[in-house]
Design a protein that fits this description.
The complex is a heterodimer of chains A (336) and B (435). Chain A is an all-alpha fold and 336 residues long. Chain A is built from 14 helices and 2 strands; from the N terminus they run ααααβαβααααααααα. Chain A has a single domain, classed as ABC transporter involved in vitamin B12 uptake, BtuC, CATH 1.10.3470. Chain A has a two-stranded antiparallel ribbon. In chain A, helix 1 packs across helix 11, helix 1 runs antiparallel to helix 12 and helix 1 packs across helix 13. The longest helix of chain A is centred in the N-terminal third of the chain and has 37 residues. With 435 residues, chain B is an all-alpha fold. In chain B, helix 2 crosses helix 17. Chain B is globular and about 75 Å long. Classes of the chains: A mainly alpha (336), B mainly alpha (435). At the A-B interface, helix 4, helix 11 and helix 14 of A face helix 8, helix 16 and helix 19 of B.
Chain lengths: 336, 435
């Protein structure tokens, strides 16, 4: 029995990975939920927007690396991120003007907008493939670990080593900064307040003289920032492959729906709920059990609920549970 | 131009396009594309039932399509006595246990009142149930997978002729569609889309990972295609050699074309039957009711129509049709490769662009849309690189040019997306508007 080792194992394989994954999902879900709140449709192109933003950021990162610019111990991609966001924002604004605005003016049904977003998804996906290809790209540089397992073991004398990767810490810090800035913006600035008013009641907002086009433009800018940041953080933490980003759509939607579509706070909570459920149900708990339980009680199996191949099933199960029991989500999203 | 002559014109143009491929490139290629096109046309008919008749948004097409393929494997592959003695009965018992656990959990949920007691007892019940299921299931699955893993290693099939599997395929896909629709119907329209996206991914990951069932990523090959003959056998038949001689064609080419024609005839027959049934249903009182519900749910509900039930019905029907198409796809290729279906852009969203291009709500439109898009899609692979080489000829040779030419095939995705966006924007009724 060794509680400390059990805690280290738990941190290493469950809490740290789930927290950084949760932060990435939360940022993705925030983007989906903002679009849902302001533009009133589920954006199927969001995964590919994340992929596109990340691809642009990777290209800029490579350019920086070629020019010899680095960010010291931090990944160069963080330097390239603002530029990546800017490019993505331009593309999204162009998409809005060229595609979505027409349907907004016509007050098309949400489901038509969903199909339109599917078309945008195709084009975005093709753009990403054209500029960077479909292969796996690993673009993390800088220092890999803040503490690695060996150092930790030497420091504490425990059998289990704790590895704290730089990307995990960066993910969490960036997510906290971005979320704090977003909430400050939504709650304390005039534009942010007008956005919330618009989301609550479009007609009243229009009557009070809020310019809908401005609200929509600001929304796309925020979405560009959130999507690119989420994509780059995910790519730094794991690796970048356009197809994986498309597949992220399901957990992101699950997160947004769990929290209540249209509710930003809900999106964050939803992101962590999905991430923790996914990691905890695909983790083999045997190692933790071996440290906590007396030897005679440790089971023979891996104590793994699901293999990692079925991680989508976890998002789906959560989604189904929410749809069955509480369709408005934990934080009462917009309409059912 | 009225509806009928417009349909005929579009049909004629599509036919000419395929003939042009045959003349300019080769007939085997034209037939390959045609057969692919006929299968996706059936898929598009299924999607059109859901979207065109009822406005239901299904983005899990690839999953239902793959389930149809699984049916072919389970029905038509030969019986495997070794697997049968090693663990197939046990696997079946395990699956029955799982179904019972799910069913009992649902009953339990209804019987117990809301509160902590319900949550706790449900969790305990499901935990125990799943443990029982796994203790029965795991050893059996392992035993089955261990048998001759390089060749079989799965439970095998029933050894029945392929056409039987079409019914099973429809049933499989319909059952999956029923489950997901039961959960997501009656909520916001987007929720069904998100739920189908999930079920599609899960079906495919199950097919990829449960190798006792279908060999997973190792693929099932050598699937029978009865009643369509096999090329190798044909080439040995004296009457066939004579035929090739009389036609003055190469023996291999003749056999490829002959088999392609057989498939095309079979698929066309099935397509026509489904198309006829779909058209008849659309013109019946049932079809008018469906469209009335789609156009104004509130009014239809006020007239006493059970909207949710009708939606469920048409969603399940559409899934069944998609399942049949999936079975035909596996039959055509003689191969069941779960990894293949993981390309949702090809197997789901491409179908959607066909339905939208053809004209949502118009069955013939979906079929023609499918034949057109499939032609563009397949041709992009062979013509695309040449076109890009031509377009980039002013550029100096270098990595950029190579990259552009190599990614020419990828350009079919944005091309299809662009077609979709343009149709939605400028001609939302599609090629053949709904009558």
């Amino acid at each position: 029995m060794n509680i400390l080792d059990a805690i280290v194992v738990l941190l290493n394989y469950v809490i740290i990975p789930a927290t950084s994954y949760g932060a990435q999902l939360a940022l993705g879900a925030l983007g989906v939920t903002l679009i849902y709140g302001i533009l009133r449709f589920s954006n199927f192109a969001h995964g590919d927007t994340m992929a596109f933003g990340t691809a642009v950021t990777i290209l800029i990162t490579w350019a920086f690396q070629a020019a010899g610019i680095t960010f010291g111990p931090l990944p160069t991609a963080l330097l390239a991120l603002p530029l990546g966001i800017a490019v993505t924002a331009l593309v999204l604004l162009f998409t809005d003007r060229a595609v979505y605005r027409f349907y907004r003016r016509k007050k098309a049904a949400p489901v038509i907008l969903v199909i339109v977003s599917m078309g945008v998804m195709f084009v975005m996906n093709g753009l990403t493939r054209l500029i960077i290809g479909v292969q796996d790209q690993n673009f993390a540089d800088g220092q890999r670990f803040i503490i690695n397992a060996f150092q930790f073991r030497k420091m504490t004398g425990l059998a289990q080593g704790l590895a704290l990767r730089t990307t995990s810490v960066i993910t969490l810090l960036t997510a906290i900064i971005v979320v704090a800035a977003l909430f400050w913006f939504l709650n304390h600035t005039r534009t942010g307040k007008s956005m919330r008013a618009f989301a609550d009641n479009e007609d009243l907002a229009l009557l009070s003289g809020i310019n809908p086009e401005r609200v929509v433009t600001v929304t796309w800018l925020l979405v560009a920032g959130l999507a690119t940041t989420a994509g780059v953080l995910y790519g730094l933490d794991k690796s970048f492959m356009p197809f994986t980003y498309f597949q992220l759509l399901l957990p992101i939607f699950a997160a947004a729906v769990v929290g209540g579509l249209g509710n930003p706070l809900g999106a964050i909570v939803g992101g962590f709920v999905v991430a923790f459920s996914e990691v905890m149900s695909t983790y083999a708990w045997r190692m933790v059990a071996a440290y906590v339980l007396p030897r005679s009680l440790v089971p023979g199996g891996l104590m793994q609920l699901l293999t990692t191949d079925y991680k989508f099933a976890v998002s789906f199960a959560i989604l189904v549970a929410v749809l069955l029991f509480k369709p408005t989500g934990i934080f009462k999203g917009k309409s059912v | 131009m009225n509806g009928r002559s417009r349909s005929l014109w579009v049909l004629a143009v599509v036919g000419l396009l395929y003939v042009a491929v045959g003349v300019l490139q080769s007939w085997p290629l034209a037939l390959t594309i045609l057969n692919d096109g006929l299968i996706v046309a059936i898929t598009a008919l299924g999607v059109n039932m859901q979207w065109g008749y009822a406005g239901l948004f299904n983005v899990g097409v690839s999953g239902f399509f793959a389930l149809g393929g699984l049916a072919v494997v389970l029905v038509s592959m030969p019986l495997d006595p070794q697997a049968w003695s090693a663990g197939t009965p046990r696997l079946l018992v395990a699956l029955v246990i799982l179904a019972l656990v799910i069913f009992a959990a649902m009953r339990l949920y209804r019987v117990l009142g809301a509160g902590w007691l319900r949550i706790v007892s449900l969790i305990v019940f499901i935990g125990v149930g799943v443990t029982v299921f796994r203790t029965v299931f795991n050893p059996a699955a392992k035993a089955v997978e261990a048998i001759n893993a390089a060749v079989t290693g799965n439970i095998g099939g029933l050894g029945l002729p392929v056409p039987f599997s079409f019914i099973v395929a429809a049933a499989f896909a319909a059952a999956a569609g029923w489950a997901v629709a039961k959960i997501a119907l009656g909520l916001r329209s987007d929720y069904l889309a998100i739920a189908t996206l999930g079920i599609g991914q899960i079906i495919i990951s199950v097919l990829m990972n449960e190798s006792w069932l279908d060999r997973g990523v190792k693929n099932v090959v050598g699937i029978s295609r009865w009643p369509v003959p096999e090329e190798v056998r044909l080439q040995k038949q004296p009457w066939f050699i004579d035929l090739a001689h009389t036609l003055g064609m190469h023996l291999t080419t003749t056999s490829t074309v002959f088999v392609g024609l057989c498939f095309a005839a079979l698929f066309t027959a099935i397509l026509l039957v489904i198309l006829l049934l779909a058209e008849l249903s659309l013109r019946s009182p049932w079809g008018r009711m469906m469209r009335a519900i789609r156009d104004n749910e509130v009014a239809a509900e006020a007239m006493g129509k059970d909207v949710k039930r009708r939606h469920l019905q048409v969603f399940v029907l559409g899934c069944a049709v998609i399942g049949i198409a999936g079975a035909l796809f596996v039959m055509l290729h003689g191969l069941f490769s779960p990894v293949n279906y993981n390309d949702a852009l090809r197997y789901t969203f491409l179908i959607w662009s066909m339905v939208i291009l053809g004209g949502s709500g118009n069955n013939l439109g979906s079929v023609l849309g499918a034949l057109i898009i499939m032609l563009i899609w397949d041709e992009a692979g062979s013509v695309g690189p040449h076109l890009f080489a031509l377009l980039t000829s002013p550029l100096a040779d270098g990595p950029l040019k190579t990259h552009l030419i190599n990614s020419a095939v990828e350009m079919r995705l944005p091309a299809v997306g662009l077609v979709l966006l343009l149709v939605l924007r400028f001609s939302p009724k599609g090629l053949l508007p709904e009558r």
